[in-house]
Amino acid sequence: MQLGQICRNGVHPEFRNLASFSHSIEKGYLVLFEGIVMILLGTYNHPSYITRYSPKSTYDLATSIRGFLNLPEITWRGMNATWSLHQGFLNLVVTSESKCWNPACDRMTYSWSKRPEPTSVYRRMLREPGNPLGGYLCAICGTYHRCHNGELPSPAVIARIALRFEARAKAGADVACGTCGRLESQFSKRHFMGRDGRKGYYTRKHRVHTDLPGKLLCPPFFEFFEKGKRERTDEEVQILLGTTHLVTARGRGETIRCKNPACGAIEVSNTPPKQRHILNRRVRLVLCPPFNNYANRGSLRNREQVEATLARRMQEEERERAQNDDAAASRPESV
Ligand SMILES: [Zn+2]
Ligand SMILES: [Zn+2]
Ligand SMILES: [Zn+2]
């Protein structure tokens, strides 16, 4: 087992028989036995060495068992760097197909390598996470089970969800939202941290709502429909897309200019939110705050107001500059 150690120069192997069995046993029990011996002899004793094959929980287990058994303290560094049981038991049925555990469902479940198609429709899920012997659920029952507190779907619910799953699978990768037209890849990636501390990211997929069959919706539109039980109107979509575009442009540090031809003021970076340019809902143009107010009152191109505003802004800027100069002059010279 410790071939690397045995093969080192000057090491004389001294094999001992720790256990013998009168008949052949499942290989997994040998691995379990190895783990027990590792704990009893204190050879798994290098807790700062954390890898996929030697997670922290296994060192904790070894420590708590040794503590419980009141075994003497160990002074050596140990020998094993891998928790043997990580390899687990060989599950002979894992690659065979098996029926979904839900009696109301007649779908088959498949192992990863034997799926008829590489779509999420054929995902196989554990009925009880953490219990490999608890039975398999198909993707539909498994997802429902997870989202409904352990409840299993009825045949009617399964049929409805199946339609949704199939529409999603048929659409393929990177599809456009049926309402706003944005692609899946246009949405920012979401970060996650797994239970083992592993970090990663995923893209949220467009989904089909049960009450809106055949139509793929992007995550925000899906949530909107779920909450309000209605779709956004064309006008609402345009306003939302315009606002999203403005926010993205701002995030990227692009120049944001007032779209009123008489103004064209550029938004200064780090402007407080209330003084930022805004997408006006009436005229659907990005405008600076004063012209946004005018546009709301229905007078986007009122020459007099435009000129008055420009004059007032120039005065304000001048006053501000003068104040700044004064402040600079009155500040004591710094070395
Ligand atoms: Zn099922
Ligand atoms: Zn959308
Ligand atoms: Zn403006």
Describe this structure in a few short sentences.
The protein is mainly alpha-helical and 335 residues long.
What are its keywords?
335 residues; two-stranded antiparallel sheet; single chain; binds zinc ion; 8% strand; mainly alpha
Give an overview in words.
By secondary structure, the protein is mainly alpha-helical. Among the domains are: 16-87, no CATH class; 98-172, no CATH class; 254-323, no CATH class. It is 36% helix and 8% strand. It has nine helices and ten strands. Strands 1-2 form a two-stranded antiparallel sheet. β5 (190-193) and β6 (199-202) form a beta hairpin. Bound molecules: zinc ion (ZN) (3 copies). One zinc ion (ZN) is lined by residues 177, 179-180, 182, 217-218, 221.
Mean pLDDT: 83
Q: What gross morphology would you assign?
A: flat
The helix content is: 25-40%
Order of helices and strands: HHHEEEEHHEEEEHHEEHH
Strand order, biggest sheet? 1-2
Strand percentage: 5-15%
Q: Give the C-alpha Rg.
A: 33 Å
Main sheet makeup:
2 strands, antiparallel
Question: How far from one another are the termini?
Answer: 72 Å
Itemize the secondary structure elements and their pairings.
Elements: H1 3-6, H2 27-41, H3 56-68, E1 98-99, E2 108-109, E3 124-126, E4 136-138, H4 139-147, H5 155-171, E5 190-193, E6 199-202, E7 207-208, E8 216-217, H6 219-228, H7 234-251, E9 278-279, E10 286-287, H8 289-296, H9 303-330
Antiparallel strand pairs: 1-2, 3-4, 5-6, 7-8, 9-10
The structure holds zinc ion (3 copies).
